Amino acid sequence: MPRKSKMLAEEFFNDAINTYVEHATSDESALLKNLRIETRTQTNMINMLSGPVEGRLLQLLVSLSKAKNCLEVGTFTGYSALNIAASLPAEGKLYTLEFNPEYAKIAQKFFNLSPDGHKIELLLGKAEDSIRNLDVQFDFAFIDADKQNYPLYYDLILPKLRSGGLIIVDNALWGGEVVAPVEKQAHAIHALNQKAKNDPHVETVMLTVRDGIFIIRKK
Questions:
Q1: Cβ atoms of residues 141 and 73 within 8 Å
Q2: What's 25's DSSP letter?
Q3: Does residue 4 fall inside a structural domain?
Q4: pTM of full prediction above 0.90
Q5: Is residue 2 part of a domain?
Q6: Residue 107 near residue 82, CB atoms below 8 Å
Q7: Which InterPro entries does the record associate with it (predicted)?
Q8: Interval 36-90: pLDDT, tens
């Protein structure tokens, strides 16, 4: 969830390239478009929303990994959750974790409107507590919550992830600040990036999509 002051990786490109990229990407649903509009009007935090390109990337990764049990740390208004759920089989399950009840209220509204909403269970509260309490083996996890706890979330999720499963980390570049971290959030994200890179149990690749997407695969 990048802050307003951050420059996303996509902003280094001109408007024509950004438009071209979006047009080359499969269209989002009408429901997702409406969710983006409501997020903009109700929260004034549209930059915290993953957006159409990243949303489609999540859909593809879930589909390619044949995931059935998924975890999302940081629901916000539910845009990424709906993208993940769209690629799950009918019996699939996404547990999405959110601390802010106002964001969760918007998300649940759109989950109820979606044909994939029955696959999603929204858990309100501290993410670390919810992760510890979930007795589930996950195929796929998306981390996009409070940045200072990124290393903790990685440590909690990895033992619950099946071999071959994926962890996707959003804001992995944090506006470029991870190169020479100063603030706490940048230090924490950099710490996770290095932890995963040096972990012999996983393999990694960093993508410069939006504010950086880190793909981690458990061996």
A1: yes
A2: S
A3: no
A4: yes
A5: no
A6: no
A7: Cation-dep_OMT, SAM-dependent_MTases_sf, SAM_O-MeTrfase
A8: 999 999 998 888 888 899 999 999 999 999 999 999 999 999 999 999 999 999 9
